[in-house]
Write a structure and sequence with these properties.
Elements lengths: L28 E7 L5 E7 L10 E3 L6 E3 L17 H8 L2 H27 L1
Antiparallel strand pairs: 1-2, 3-4
């Protein structure tokens, strides 16, 4: 036997008729256009009473991911990303070749000293 709730399945409680247009009061808004380096325009909407200092000068273009600015003739240029540096690359920036050789020799000497002591203990 089918239940009587078939008609309301999937509907929200308090939901008005399908043609209802009054879903609250809309705030006045302004559209700001942004352009990226490829000429794509993106429009962002802000409340009309917002302080102009709070509206960003640049955004990321949702189409290309490039930075987009308000000046159509002079869009911002994408910043070149630095490649990922390994730990060794950072060490080489801080140490000279001579310092690296000295540190390596000190570390090897400590290792030799420990192994020498370990070998003496194993023989006795």
């Amino acid at each position: 036997m089918a239940g009587n709730n078939q008609a309301i399945r999937g509907a929200r409680v308090g939901y008005g008729s399908v043609g209802e247009l009054d879903h609250g009061v809309r705030v006045e808004r302004i559209g700001i256009s942004y352009w990226d380096a490829e000429g794509n325009e993106t429009v962002r909407y802000y409340a009309a009473d917002i302080d102009p200092a709070d509206i960003p000068e640049e955004i990321d273009s949702p189409k290309t991911g490039l930075p987009a600015g308000r000046d159509k003739d002079n869009p911002p240029i994408a910043v070149k990303n630095e490649p990922y540096k390994t730990h060794l690359a950072y060490v080489k920036e801080r140490r000279t070749e001579a310092e690296a050789e000295q540190l390596l020799e000190e570390a090897l000497q400590r290792l030799r000293d420990r192994r020498g002591l370990a070998m003496k203990q194993n023989k006795t």
